[in-house]
Structures are given as C-alpha cells and as structure tokens.
Design a protein that fits this description.
The complex is a heterodimer of chains A (about 100) and B (about 300).
Chain A (H helix, E strand, L loop, with lengths): L2 E10 L8 E8 L21 H6 L3 E5 L19 E9 L8 E3 L1
Antiparallel strand pairs in A: 1-2, 1-4, 3-4, 4-5
Chain B lengths: L8 H10 L1 E4 L5 H16 L25 H7 L1 H11 L4 E10 L24 E6 L11 E2 L18 E2 L3 E2 L6 E6 L4 E2 L9 E9 L13 H4 L18 H5 L11 H16 L9 H13 L3
Antiparallel strand pairs in B: 1-7, 2-9, 3-7, 3-9, 4-6, 4-8
Helix pairs in contact in B: 2-3
The chains are: A mainly beta (about 100), B alpha+beta (about 300).
C-alpha cells in the first residue's frame, strides 16, 4: 500500500470548530493523484465550517491554543488566530483513479 | 508637482478601513504608451547611479524623474498628485520603485506578504502606488490583495501560509488604473496564465511632514461626529459617516477579530485627524475613562 498525506489548514472566525472558515490552505502529498477539495462558488471556502470538514472525512490533528492576552498588546491584531490542522491519508494503490481514502 | 485633486474625508476613511484606494483609467492612453517604453528601459537595465529614471532613496517626490518623462507626468496628474498629498502630505520622499514584468504564461506566483519587514506600531504610514499601464482582464493573474489587512502587524511573508482568504481581491482593470496601498496591506503578485506579458510599476513613498488633515476637509463636519457614535447606543445613520466606514467588516474578519480591527482603525484616524477623542462604538473611550480612575485623573 502506498499511502500519502493530504493536509488542510482552516482558519475560523473564532475558537469554535463550528465557526465560519475565513481562510484556508491545502497541501497535497499525492501530487494530484488523490481526491481534491469540494468546489465552491467564487472565492468561497471548500467547507463553511470546521465541522463540515470533519463530516467529509478529515481528521483534526491540532487546533490553536487560546493564548493569554499580553498587557500592552492585548488589543493588537496580527495573524489569523484560530487554525485547524486537518489531515487525511490516501491509498494510491486503491481501485479509484483518484486514490482511495484510508480509514 | 502639479495641481492636486484632493481626497475627501470619506475617501480617507475608506482608505483607513480598507487599506487601499482605486482610481480607474486615470492615466490617458498616450501616457500609458509612453510609460511602457520607460518601464521596458527600467526592466532592461540594472540599477546604476545616474539613471534619471531611478531616483535615489530620500529624494523629494517633486524632484523624482525628469520633467516631461511619462512617469513624472503620471505622478503630476491631479488625481494622482492629490491622492498622494492627501495621504502622505505635501513633502513626501521617494523610498524605492520596482517594475514588475510577468511574461505571458509565467507560472510563478509570489507568496502572500506585506512590504517590507515588520513595521512600527505607531500610526504613521507609507503608501505604495501601483500603476497598471495596460488592461488586465479578469483571470489574467493581477495582483492579489486582502482588503483590511493593512493594520495587522506581521512580518513580510510570515502570512504566506494563507493560500486563500475569503474576500481577497485579484486586480483586474482597464489601462491607466492606479491603486494606492497602505504599506501594510497583504498582497502577492500572481502567475500570468494569459497570452500577454503583464506590467506593473510600483513606487513606495514616505511622509516627510505632517499627515494630519492633508485632504479636502470641506465635508469633515458633515461626516465626523463625537465619540458617542455607538452602534449599540445612539449613532448617526441613514448617511455615510466616518464612523460607519470604520466599523465596516471584511468577510475574513467578520464575527471574530473585526472589533480589534476597528480599534486599530480608530487609532489611525485619531492620528490622521488629530482628534484624540474620536471613537467608534466606545472601544477606546471606555478603557480610557476607567484608566483615569486608576491614575487619579478622573
């Protein structure tokens, strides 16, 4: 069996996995031989929430810790705070021409 | 510098909220054609001292590029000169320029980034003028940028992991269009899947004098109100106001971090308007009032 990892980073509007996805990134260890992301309309994310990704078979590996505000910079904004790191493994030897998701 | 068509108060508020302004087809065709020859020259020859089309960093904008050159004439256009003056004052200086040339079919895209390194927390800002001499059709890979990202203090391409941001834009437009960015706006040059080379000329300008109320303030008293303008209390409504502009959410911040963005915008507006009491939705005022209880000045 030849297994490869696909990684999906979702950035959500707050710390809840069920909150709205506001940014995302996809890294495909199958070099296109595995399944892609759901197609979405005109700049919309592939999943509306983190929960929708779980429902589509993605496994949640990590989510951002809630970080204590630091006095003096408690109102600063910088990076997207709420990141969900998800993966799925793809068996490239499976019967499908687009690989087979590995349980 | 030529005569200036200054921005309005609401134009500047929109810049504070979005981090950019757009001026469609403001450069006439003959200037676009002349500019292309100068851009090709800049692209062909490496920087060297003495090229009049390459000013030294720190040169007053008024002394940049030879009189009569296309680039000089573009920066003298009233709408361009007016926007620059409105944002960085009457005596801006040249920081640097870069001529982007993306050949047809190029597959290389920049990562999302801001220029140039992590910046100061104070509200002063530079602007970057992006000039597009020819048409960029939808889908031809025009500059990607994220409205409302400019006040997030990050370091250069540390935001590269954000491959897609909800509400991001990809520039497309007619020849002679100019965008003006706050220096902190996240952006990235894109691949060029079209059959035509793509050109863009960028100039960064620093303020070297006051940035306070450099725009046309004729409308100021009609659109700026006291710090009581609070969407959960009493606010001006039914007409555009600076407060309504500054509380406007972007799709990628809505429902989460947008209140911090509003706080940063008010910080910038207070600086630009020299109005330390200005506020939107009481975010600054409530904590400032309580702070006076602690330091005994209440």
């Amino acid at each position: 069996m030849t297994a490869r990892q696909q990684v999906l980073q979702l950035y959500t509007s707050n710390s809840a996995v069920s909150s709205n996805v506001v940014a995302w990134a996809f890294h495909d260890g199958t070099s296109g031989r595995g399944p892609g992301l759901p197609e979405a309309d005109d700049g919309a994310p592939p999943y509306g929430t983190g929960v929708e990704a779980l429902e589509d078979g993605w496994r949640l590996l990590q989510m951002s810790a809630l970080v204590d505000p630091i006095e003096g910079s408690e109102r600063r904004s910088s990076y997207l705070r709420y990141e969900l790191l998800l993966e799925r493994m793809v068996d490239l030897d499976g019967p499908s021409s687009h690989g087979r998701l590995r349980p | 510098m030529g005569t200036a068509s200054l921005l309005s108060t609401m134009d500047v508020a929109r810049f504070v909220a979005d981090g950019f302004l757009r001026f469609d087809s403001v450069v006439p065709t003959e200037l676009n054609e002349a500019a292309m020859l100068e851009l090709e020259h800049l692209r062909r020859f490496a920087p060297f001292e003495g090229d009049p089309l390459r000013p030294r960093s720190g040169t007053p904008l008024a002394d940049c590029w030879p009189p009569g050159s296309a680039i000089r004439r573009i920066f003298d256009l009233p709408v361009v000169a007016g926007a620059i003056r409105s944002l960085v004052g009457t005596t801006p200086v040249y920081d640097h320029q870069f001529c982007h040339h993306i050949p047809a079919g190029s597959t290389r895209a920049q990562d999302l980034h801001c220029d140039a390194a992590v910046d100061s927390f104070d509200p002063t800002f530079d602007i970057q003028v992006f000039y597009f001499p020819h048409a960029v059709p939808v889908g031809a890979g025009g500059t990607r940028f994220v409205p409302g990202s400019h006040l997030r203090v990050v370091h250069e391409n540390s935001v590269a992991r954000y491959q897609h941001v909800v509400g991001e834009r990809f520039y497309a437009g007619e020849p002679g269009t100019v965008l003006i960015f706050h220096h902190g706006l996240w952006h990235a040059g894109q691949a060029n899947p079209s059959a035509h080379d793509r050109w863009m000329f960028k100039v960064r300008l620093n303020p070297d004098g006051s940035q306070v109320r450099q725009w046309d303030t004729t409308d100021y008293d009609d659109v700026v109100f006291g710090n009581w303008d609070h969407m959960f209390a009493t606010m001006e409504h039914g007409r555009p106001t600076v407060a309504s502009e500054l509380r406007r959410s972007h799709r990628w911040t809505a429902g989460g971090q947008d209140r911090l963005d509003i706080i940063e915008r008010v910080h910038l507006w207070r600086y630009l308007a020299d109005d330390p009491d200005f506020d939107v939705d009481w975010y600054h005022t409530r904590t400032e009032r309580r702070a006076r209880l602690v330091d005994g000045t209440a």
